[in-house]
Amino acid sequence: MNRYNHFSMQIITDFVFLCIVIFLCPMPQHIYTDSIYASTHVNWDSLTDNKSEELHITYMGTPYFPNASECGYIELMLENRFNIQFEPVFLDLNAYQQTKPLMLAAGSAPDVWGEADPITLQQAIRHNLIMEIPYDLIKQHAPNYVKIINSFAPQSWLFSYAQGKNYGVPTIWTDGIYPYQCIWRKDWLNNVGIKKTPETLEEMYAALYMFRHCDPDKNGKKDTYGLTTNYDWWWMQFSEIFGASGVLPYDWTIHDGKIVWGGVLPETKSTLKLLHKWYADELIDPDFIINKNEDAEERAFVSGRVGYACGATSHGAASFDNFDETAPASLVSKLHTLCPDAQITIGVLPLGPQGKRGIRVWGGGGNIFVFSARLNNHPQKILRILVMWEQMCTDPNLFIESKAGKRTVHWDYRNNANASGGLKLLPPYDNPHRATAAVVNLSLGGGPYWNPCGAMPIFLEQFYSQKEIAFNQAHRNPALGLKDVFLKPDVVPSAGKYLRVLRERQKTVFAQIIRGDKPIEAFDNFVREWYDRGGQKMTDDANLLYKQLSNISQKVITGD
Amino acid sequence: MQTTFSEKTFNYLNFILLGGIAILSLYPFWYILSLSFSSAATATQQSLHLWPKEICLASYRMVFSDPDMLTGYTNTIIRTVAGTFLTMLFTCLGAYPLSKPYLPYRKCFMLFVLITMIFSGGLVPIYLLIKNLGLINNIWVYILPLLTNAFNILVVKNFFQSIPESIAESARIDGASELRILFQFYMPLSKPILTTVALWTAVIHWNMWFDAMIFVYDNKLQVLQTFLQRIVIQGQTSLIEKGAINYDIAQYTSETLKAAVTVVTIVPILLVYPFLQKYFIKGIMIGSVKE
Amino acid sequence: MQLVWMLVPVLLFFIIFSYIPMCGLIIAFKDYRMDLGIIHSPWAGLANLSELLQAFEFRKALTNTIIISMLRLSFGFVAPVLLALLLNEIRVTWYKRTIQTIVYLPYFFSWVLLGGIILTVFSSNGPMNLVYMLLLDICNFCLGQINSLFGTNLHHFAFSPIQFMTNRHWFLFVLILTGIWQEVGYSAIIYLAALAGIPVELYESANVDGAGRWHQTIHITLPVLMPTIVTLFLLRLGQILNAGFDQIYNLYNPIVYDSADIIDTYVLRILQNMDFSLATAAGMFKSIIGMILIVTVNMIVNKYTKGEKGLW
User: Which of B12, B86, B120, B130 best probes binding to C when mutated, by most C CB atoms within 10 angstroms?
Assistant: First the structure.
C-alpha cells in the first residue's frame, strides 16, 4: 500500500511539473514576438530627402575597429556634413560573425550594415530582413559610385540579387584585382646550379626536385622541400599550379559557353596527377594538409623549409610591403634575421603546357552594404546614405578624410607635400590601438568603416607611393588574375545548401589523390558523387544566374 | 611502519611516473612562456621552443599598451568574485534540500534539475530572453545566467549526502533552522568539494568571453578575454600595416602575441590555485603525519 | 517544508534561464523564419529531423561522434580516477602538491593554442617522429648485432615518418591522448576532494589490521570514491554526443574528415548557413540520445545498488 502511494504520488507530481512547463510555454509568447519586419511597399518615385532634417541612423561597417567608440573624428565630420546623427556599432570579427545573425533574428540589427558572406546575405533576403533597393534608385542618387562599380566589378551586383530584385549596394576592393606572385630563394637556385629563375612547370619541377634532393641550403641534411601550401584555404590551394592549366578548382568558370564547376574539369584531373607525381617525388612538404595558420607558407619559407612560396602567406608572398628592407616585419627582413645570406628573387607564375598561366584573385568586388527592412518607415535614410557614399568616392579630400582622418592630425605624406613617397600615420596613431580606436586606417584598397569604396583608380596617384605603383605594374599584372565568373562561388542560390559540404568533400578527395591514398581514378568517382549530391542543381542554378548576369551587364552597359 | 619491497618499488615507480606526467603537462606552459619572450624572427622557426633564443618584451609591451586592459581586468575580477560567491550560495541552496531523502517530491525536483543539463534551448531563444530581460549591455548578464548549474548541484549534493545525518539531527533538536544547519555545519564540513566547485566556477568566469561577445557591445563593460582576443586579431592584421612605423610591430608575431596574452590571462589564476589546493590535500595530510 | 522554500530561488533560476529558452526548441519542428519570429513561423512537423537523418554527412558525423566519444569515455573517464589514486599514494607532501599544481596546467590553454603545439609535436619531422626514429635505430642496431652474431639475415626497419595527424587511426589516437592530457589533472581534483573527505581513522584501523596499500585502495578508497565515480559517469553519459568540438576543430584536416567530422562540426556548417531550424533539430537529437542513455543506465545502476547510487 505504501509503495503504491509512493508511486501514485510520483505520477501526480510528474503531472504537476508537466503542467508547469506547459503553462510556462505560452509565457514566452510575448517574449518571442519579434515580427517587426512588416513588409510595406515603398514608393521610391515620390520619395524625397529633406536635407535640413536630422536623421538618426544606426550603422555597422566592417568589423575591424572593435575598440572604437562613438563620436570619433570621422563620425563627427560626416554627421556635420550630412546632417546625420550616427549611432555606430563597433564589433570585432568574431562578434560580427556570431552576433549578427542573432541581432537579425531578434530584430535589433542596425539600419545599415556591411555584409561579407553571400550565403548569409541570401538567407537574410529570403527571410525578409533586408530592404529592397532598386538599381535605378542607386544610380539616380549615386551615379558616379555606380559607374565605378560597373567599370570595376559589375558581377558584385549579383551578391545582393534575388528574384530579379536588388537588395544591396556593392563596395569596391581595389586590392582584390592584383594577383599574387611567386618568390624563389635565389641563393638556393644558385647552390643547385640553376641560373635562370624557373618560368614553366617543367623548369619549376626541375628546380623544386633539386631543392628536395640536392641539399640547397648546404647543411648536409635532407630537410628541405620544394613547396607547401595552406591547404585549408581553398581559394589559394596550389592555385598557381592549377592556374597553369587555366582552372580554378573551387570556382565557377566558363567552359564551352557554359558555366561549370572547376573541380570537375579534366584539367583539374591532370593537375592532380601532376601534383601527385610531385608529392611522390617528395617535392611537396608532407605536412601541407595540416597547415592551418594563415602564415603557414610564409613560415615555411622564412625558416628555410621550402625554397618557393606564392599565395598562402598573410599578404601574398610578393606584395610590395614584403620587400621593404626598412620594415622589420617584412618577409625580407625576417628571412635575413634568420639567414643573413638568403636572397629572394621575384619569379613569374609557372607556364603550363598549353601556354597558360595565372592565379586566383577575388576581383574588385568587396562587401555588400545592406539596409534593414525596418527602414521602410524611414526610406529617406537610404537616400542620405547614398548621397554620402557618392561624395566619398568622387571628392578626394572627403575620400581620404573618411578613411584616414585629418591630415597633419592623423596622417601625413611621407615626403612633405605629395604622395610620391606614400602616406604615414602620425603619432600617437602609429600605434595600432590608437589607430583603430580613432577608426583611422591607411589600407586604402579595402573598405574600412565609414567609407565603402576602396581606392579608386583615379585616386591611386594621389595616395599611393610611386614605388608601390611601379612594383604592382612590374610584378602583379591584373591580367594574370583568374576570377570566378561570379567573383564568389557561393553567390549561386543553392550554394547555401550544398556548397560547403561538397567543398569539404572535394578537399578530402583531392588530398587523398595528391598523397596517393587513392588512385587518380578516384577523381571520376568524385565527379559523379559531386553531381549526385547537389552539384547538378548548383550547376543548373549557376547557368541560370549567368544568364541573369548577362542581363544585368546589358542593363549596366546600356544604362551608362 | 614497515613497508615491503613491492610497496617500495611501487612508491618509486609512482614517483617517477607522476613526475613524467607532470613534465608533459608543464611543457605547453613552458612553450608558451618561452614563445611569449621570443622575437618575431626566432618565433617563426619551427622548433620546440624550449627556451627563447633572445629575450624580447615587445609582445608584452603591445599587450599592456592597450588602455582597455585595465577595464578588462576590473570587469573580469568583478564578475569572477561576485559570480563565484553567488554561485556557491545558489549551489548550496539547491544541493542541501536535494541531499535530504525526506524532501517531498525529491525525485521530481531532481529530474527538474537534471533535464536542464541535457536539454538547452539553443542560441536564438537565449538571445531573445536576454534581450527581453533587458540584460543586453548590462553587467548582470555575466552573473545571472551562470548562477548555478545542474552539474555543480549534483556534485555538492553527493558530498552532502556523505555527511552523517546525525549532525543535522542534533542541530535541529537545538532548534536550528535548515538554513542555519547548512551554513553552520554543512558548509564548513564540505570545504574540499566547495573549493572544487568554487575553482571550477572561478575558472569559467575568468575564461568566459562568449557571453561578453554576444550580449555586450559596450567597450566599458567588456571583459579581459575580449580585449586579449582583439589584441591577437589586431596583431595579425596590423603586422604589415601601411604607414605604421611603430618599431615594436616588427618584434612580435601573431604567435608570440597569443602566447603573451595567454600568460597574462592565466598567471592570476595560477597564483590563486595553491591557496585553494590545501583543501584538497588536507585530509590526507593528517593521515601522512600520523603514519 | 523549509527545505522546499530553500529550493525556490534555484527552481526559479532554472525556470527562467533554462526552461523558458527550452521552449525555443520548437523551432526544430518549424520552418523558422526570422521575420516572423519563433511563434509565428509555420510548422514543419518532423521535416527538419528527417532532412537531418537523410543527410549522408549527418549519419557519418553521428557514427564518428559515437566512436570518438566511446573511446573518450572508456579511456578518458578512467584516467582521472587513476591519477587521483596514484597521487593519493604519494606520501611526500611537497612533491604531491607540485605535481598536482602542474598536471592541471594544460586545462587553462585553449585548443587554439594547444592545437599549434600538438601539430608541431606530431608533425612529420616533429619530436614524436624523432623518438620513433631513435627507437628504430636502436632496433636496427640490435638487429645488426644479431645478424653478425648468428649470421642471420634479418631485414632492418626502414624509417618513414608516422603521419600522426593525417592517418585516420593515428589521428584518433592523438585525439584521445591529447584529450586526456588536457583535462586529466583538472577532472582529478573532484576525486581528490572526495578522497580528502575520507576519515583518517579508516586507514588507521586498516593499518592496525595489517592491510597493505593495495588492500586499502580496494577496500577503503575505491568504495568511498564509488558514488562520485558513478555520478560523474552518469553525467558524462548525458554528454556523450559532445565529442569535443574545440579540440577536433583545431586539430582535424581534410584527409581525416571522414573519421573526424562530428555532429558539432557538422552543426557549425549548418549554422554558418543560418539554418537555425536544422541546427536546433541536430541539437535536440543529441539531447534525446543523451537522455535515453542516462535514463537507461540510471535504471540499471538503481537496480544493482537498490536505488542508492543512481542520480534519482
Answer: B120
User: What would be the CATH architecture of the domain defined by A183-360+492-559?
Assistant: 3-Layer(aba) Sandwich (3.40)
Q: How many domains does chain C have?
A: 2
Together in a domain, C28 and C72:
no
Whether pLDDT at B85 is above 70: yes
Q: Which of C82, C111, C190 to mutate to test the interface with B (most CBs of B within 10 A)?
A: C190
Q: Nearest CA to CA, how far is A91 from chain B (Å)? A: 7
C-alpha grid cell, residue A398: 572627403
Write out pLDDT tens, residues A27-75. 444 444 444 444 556 777 777 878 888 999 999 988 888 888 888 899 9
Q: For residue C140, is pLDDT > 50? A: yes
Number of domains, chain B:
1
Residue B235 is assigned to a structural domain of this protein: yes
Task: Say if C234 falls within a structural domain.
Answer: yes
Look up residue C199 and give its three cell numbers: 576519515
Same domain, C194 and C289: yes
C161 and chain A in contact, CB less than 8 A? yes
Tell me, yes or no, whether B25 lies in a domain.
Answer: no
* All partners of chain B with 3 or more CB pairs under 8 angstroms: A, C
SS3 A46: coil
Residue B103 domain-assigned (yes or no): yes
Chains that touch A (3 or more CB pairs under 8 A): B, C
For an interface test with C, give the residue of A6, A290, A299 to mutate (most C CBs within 10 A). Answer: A290
| B189 lies in some domain | yes
Q: Smallest CA–CA separation between C149 and chain B, in Å?
A: 35
Return d(Cα C239, Cα C293) in angstroms, integer. Answer: 10
Q: Hey, how many other C-beta atoms are within 10 angstroms of the C-beta on B104? A: 13
- 3-class SS shares of chain A: helix, strand, coil, % to 5: 50, 15, 40
C131 domain residue, yes or no: no
**Containing structural domain, residue B231:** 5-9+31-290
C267-282 tens-digit pLDDT: 888 877 788 888 889 8
Per CB-CB distance under 8 Å, the chain A contacts of B259 are none
Same domain, C235 and C207: yes
Q: Cell 595558420, residue?
A: A293
- Residue A519 DSSP SS3: coil
Q: Do C105 and B29 touch (CB under 8 A)?
A: yes
Taking contacts as CB-CB distances below 8 angstroms, the residues of chain C near A502 are none
pLDDT band (50, 70, 90) for residue C162? confident
Cα distance from C61 to chain A (closest Cα, Å)?
A: 12
Window 125-144 of B, Cβ < 8 Å to A = 125, 127-129, 131-132, 136
Looking at the structure, tell me whether residues C7 and C78 fall in a common domain: no
User: For residue C15, which amino acid is it?
Assistant: I
ipTM: 0.83
A378 in helix, strand or coil? coil
pTM of the model: 0.85
pLDDT tier, C290 (very low <50, low <70, confident <90, very high otherwise) = confident
- Residue linked to cell 591584373: A478
Could you tell me what percentage of chain B is helix, strand and coil, using 3-state DSSP and rounding each to the nearest 5? 75, 0, 25
Task: Give A504's contacts in chain C (Cβ within 8 Å).
Answer: 254, 257, 261, 269
CATH of the domain at C190: 1.10.3720.10
3 state SS of A85: strand
Does residue C19 fall inside a structural domain?
A: yes
Tell me which chains share at least 3 CB pairs under 8 Å with chain C: A, B
pLDDT band at B245 (very low <50, low <70, confident <90, very high): very low
Phi, psi of C117 (to 5 degrees): -65, -45
Residues of chain A with CATH 3.40.190.10: 55-175+366-403, 183-360+492-559
- What count of other Cβ atoms lies within 10 Å of the Cβ of residue B284? 22
Q: Find the domain containing C285 and state its range.
A: 49-110+183-304
To which CATH superfamily is domain A55-175+366-403 assigned?
Periplasmic binding protein-like II (3.40.190.10)
Residue of chain C nearest B267, judged by CA positions: C108
Choosing among A20, A335, A433, which should be mutated to test the B contact, i.e. which has the most B CBs within 10 A?
A433
Looking at CA atoms only, how far is residue B113 from chain A in angstroms?
Answer: 12
CATH at residue B247: 1.10.3720.10
